[in-house]
Amino acid sequence: MAQLLITGGAGFIGSHTCLILLEAGYDLVVLDNFSNSSSESLRRVAELSKIGHEDRLKVFEGDIRSREDLDRVFFSARDGIHAVVHFAGLKAVGESLLFPLAYWDVNVGGSRTLLAAMRRHGCRTIVFSSSATLYGDPREVPITEKSKVQPINPYGRTKAAIEKMLSGYAKAEAGWRIAFLRYFNPVGAHQSGQIGESPSGIPNNLFPFVSQVAIGLRDHLQVFGGDWPTKDGTAIRDYIHVMDLAEGHRAALELLQHEEPQVLTFNLGSGQGYSVIEVIKAFEQESGRSVPYVIGARRKGDVACSVADPSYAAKCLGWRTKRSLNEMCRDSWLWQQSSPQGYLE
Ligand code: NAD
Ligand code: WQD
Q1: Domain residues of the chain, as ranges?
Q2: Within 10 Å of residue 203's Cβ, how many Cβ atoms?
């Protein structure tokens, strides 16, 4: 079976995608520097997937900015690497405003070094983790792949730059198969509760924060703004269950491998928006716990509403989300209860 390189495979989305790809029969090599993850996630992935032997999931500690680390990984694959799924990178909007050069270095510099390694080793298929963040404050909702790319923070600008770099490469040299997957708001966890999102420090994102309030690690949630032009005044997002997202990667890989070389862009979201208050209510229902909150000021850089038009992905990939907001809350809660400190325990 084809062997894939998964950069950042120990992280939140990477670990869930590794599980889906192992179940689909792929052999995997993960390269991760564990700057925002733990090898424990992959140990659990191996356990959940019941892979018989270590050869199906090899793990290398290393950096995508290192030519030597990448060569080591490519040379390790006996029959070559057939495709790369590229998750590795920095992803916090607020941090990118404080340390923009780190974001250009890791995200853009790392992707450039990875691309050069792919060329050296004759691999021309890549699925890249892009983000809805590159639409900035969207002019129209739902957002299609043709909506204007206008990022409003350094993180989003690095994602837009990587897309440009990769699609430029594909024009310069024939044979590239590239998919940009623009994720909306990935949340939830595997239904076993064994793998999930393990943020370090105070979570930036809504779901991990709500989970920590529900379990009593924090006493309340601050809702960022109650005066947005939405149905209840709180901001609307398109939350996508991480397992649905993982299945989107499998579909994209299958399409790339079976069609002519091309560059494709897909919005991966559910097409359904929920307000912060609706998320809190659903989480309370699923956890049976109360989630106290106070409505505070808007967070700088937030937008009122971000919802995907997922119809292009449905048409080309035959993929659409299957899991509801309540399932996202249920699985996040299961994960929170089984591993209250993430992988740290
Ligand atoms: P994550 O931080 O959990 O995973 C990223 C992984 O990359 C981590 O395991 C980290 O240790 C690794 N990594 C970071 N820098 C590296 C480097 N220089 N070399 C090797 N490994 C490195 O993040 P995630 O939520 O799983 O996100 C995965 C990808 O999806 C990222 O590219 C992110 O920008 C993108 N994305 C995430 C979201 C989200 O809300 N989680 C939304 C849209 C896009
Ligand atoms: C969701 C909603 C907040 C925390 C981010 C990145 C984006 C992408 C996905 C990587 C918003 C509100 C949150 C809290 C709150 N990541 N909120 N109190 O900002 O939509 O998207 O993750 O590509 O680039 O920006 O997600 O989970 O932070 O917020 O009221 O303590 O919850 O204002 O409306 P966001 P989020």
Answers
A1: 3-186+239-269+308-321
A2: 16
